[in-house]
Amino acid sequence: MIHRAPPRRRLSKLILPLVGTGILVYFVYHLIQGNHGWRAWRILEQDIEKSEKELNILKEKEEELKNKVTLLRSDSLDEDMLDERVRAMLGNAKESEIVVIDEDDHL
């Protein structure tokens, strides 16, 4: 004859493991999906990488602009650069010149 515990006793033995499993599932879910979890961390890393790439592009453009400004300063004026800017802004060209318009060049 097998002796079984009363139903109330069996239930009390299951409560602690069920509660523990529930708490574990809760914390694992929030560790992965939460506002400060693994997925949020990965998204932030990707945003940082994207921003660093944009920053590098902007730094290169800044250097180009600084070089052009340096060439147009009165103390170090480059006549070729000045001539190029005047022609670009006024749209003037000599009859013997061939004009190539670059749509991407905004300066």
State the major sheet: none
Q: How many angstroms does the end-to-end distance come to?
A: 97 Å
**Broad shape:** rod-shaped
Give the fraction of residues assigned to helices. 55-70%
Question: Stretches where pLDDT falls below 50 for ≥5 residues?
Answer: none
The fraction of residues assigned to DSSP E strands is under 5%
Structural class, by secondary structure, is mainly alpha
**Mind telling me the C-alpha Rg?**
35 Å
Got a strand count? 0
Total of helices: 3
Secondary-structure element string: HHH
Q: What is the mean predicted local confidence, pLDDT?
A: 83
What keywords describe this structure?
mainly alpha
Annotate the secondary structure layout.
Layout: H1 7-33, H2 38-72, H3 79-90
Descriptive report:
By secondary structure, this protein is mainly α. Helix content is 69%, strand content 0%. It is built from three helices and no strands. The N and C termini lie far apart (97 Å). The model has no long low-confidence stretch (mean pLDDT 83).
